[in-house]
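Issue: ligand-bound run for nicotinamide-adenine-dinucleotide - logging full I/O for the record.

Environment: standard queue, default settings, no custom constraints.

Inputs:
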Amino acid sequence: MSLGLNLDRRSLSVLGATGSVGSSTLDLVRRSRDQWHIVALTAHANVDALARLAREFQPEVAVIADERYLPQLRDALAGTGIETASGPGALIEAAARGADVTLAAIVGCAGLAPTMAAIEQGGVIALANKEALVSAGQVMTAAVHRHGATLLPVDSEHNAIFQCLAGSDLADVRWITLTASGGPFRDWSWERLAAATPAEAVRHPNWSMGAKISVDSATMFNKGLELIEAHHLFPVGLDKLRIIVHPQSIVHSMVEYRDGSTLAQLGPSDMRVPIASALAWPRRMDTPCDPLDLATIGELTFRQPDEERFPATRIAREAAQAGGAIPAVLNAANEIAVAAFLDGQIAFTQIAAHVADVLAAYAPPPPTCLSDILDIDGEARIRARLLTEGA
Ligand code: NAD
Ligand code: MG
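Outputs:
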């Protein structure tokens, strides 16, 4: 496959450079420094980390989303020749500079508008920011087609599926199975779940990740969002998408074909593997990850998800079936509920309850453009906040 890309030296923007995925990305870039020209690095409020990364990677522009930190960023980068900017508009402008590869690693729907701006430039979009695709759905996939962009999944499950599909005809697919670790609470009783603390929820057994996705893994909303993400990336039909709990997080997902062959992608629980796959695509690159030692791991086990204790995957499947605006409502309500849980405002088990309540009361018509989605997202957030504040 040829994109006309120069695989020896490419330009790269990292949206969400200071986060878990952003840091893993830049760790790989650091090891192959001469192959990359950095266009933009962005962050929300961690100005010290952004300035440090900008000094190291010499991007054209460094953007801090929170405007209060612009003077600090300017001071820190004075004399470097690196442009500085702040605010949501500057994030979009930075993404719209275009790069051969844009790593979309902002967390939440906050990453949607910048990701859409990158898509409009038609390069490779390496997508970690699943909430953007969940919220925008067909509006995003249509923009990808319209602008000739290439959407490569970085989420480990979707990257695994992408690799297992390897260009196959989707008509030959019998099942796509997303694996889920089950999160830190997979064996907890309902009573124990109700008393789970934020500190316990962010302590994931296998993966080291940002706080929001860690809570999503604990509720299983992460897998629910991933089901919707897979529905858009690999349109085989929702009835062919399944979820299985695999506590070891070694098999990252599977594709079963009509002839009975199942292809799986295996690897360590290290995001640098799927990130490297997207960065180097259609080639491969080295990573510092330890080789997979299956004899030491010993056992790979699988079990059905329990939707009684973890209703998130059922709620997400229903939202995907409803389609249109509903996944954006689900995502926004979940973002607010997770933030409220992390703030100690609501109990762990109230996260799914609040999301279900917002979905029951708010069903706007399907969005047709980005501003529709942002309006729906904003309204769903207001409704979710009313619930969490009244909790
Ligand atoms: P994180 O919280 O560690 O980092 C998020 C990044 O986004 C930071 O750079 C932060 O500064 C920036 N950011 C946050 N809010 C912002 C805002 N309002 N405006 C602009 N920038 C903002 O998150 P993460 O764990 O790296 O996850 C990033 C995305 O990747 C999420 O969508 C997550 O679901 C997805 N993802 C993460 C992992 C993982 O292992 N961490 C795995 C798969 C997918
Ligand atoms: Mg994942």
